[in-house]
Amino acid sequence: MKQENNKQLIKANHKIISLLVKVGIVLLLFFLFLFFTRKSIQEEAQMNRLEIIQLKANGSSQMMGYLLTTENGKTIVIDGGTSDDTDNLIKHIKEKTGKVDAWFITHPHRDHATSLINIIQNTDIPIDAIYVSLHDADWYKQHEEARSNEAISLIEALQNERIKDKVHEVSLNEKIQIDNVKAEILGIKNPEITTRAINNSSMVIKMKTETKSVLFLGDTGAESGEKLLKTQKEKLKADIVQVAHHGQNGVTKEVYEAIDPQICLWPTPEWLWNNDKGEGEDSGPWKTKETRKWLEELGIKQNIIAKDGDMTLSF
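Structure (tokenized):
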């Protein structure tokens, strides 16, 4: 009888041990699943990472400047602003890696390109690549003589010995991979558009990670915006858009409808946001409030405005 009880006890112990082993295996598999799932999510999040800093105006002029940081810390600059904005841009570059991996200039007006000129001429900040879409000097003299000196200043600065081999004239639909960010050039110089000639030759850049897209319009006007609709409409959709020409007298509402963004980046100082020429709100001739109304009607979820200072957007 005692021997029979021992056999039953041993058998019961075996069952318990077997059950514990099975539970242990299940738990091990569960924790391995959680580990690798979490790792996969973390890797995917890292792959999709992009930080955008919209820079404020540091002088009385409107300006446009963006500093983007990729998943592995590469720095991309778009435009940069006036002479008054140079020190602020340098500060942000130095807070990152101290170098610029890719610099895009949408067009050569002083409120977009002068910071780059100053950094080329007066600093040793390394710049790996500069992407432009420029006419020759004679075209600017012929079609926008009053501001042709601004374009010529950029053209001459790009001949500087330390960076002249880093300058790339982009082509339409060119794709440029910068770490986890793919930049596609949707708009380049338009020699046939001579109304507001320099603005209407703004480079248009779509930057994408695996999950988000950002469209930079520079100072694209109604005429080149119409050309975009005719030639690139299927590519214009983006999660985030930089509002053209500082938010006024840029592209038409139809372009924003095609883009259908959730977030708008406004390179817009307070006086321009409020249409204030110095005599109070709505005293100026600018059309910012018309653009604001369009985008409200499109259901924009967030406006990031340069009047509020240097602003950072991360995703």
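Confidence is low (pLDDT under 50) at residues 39-47. The CA atoms of residues 39 and 246 lie 41 Å apart.
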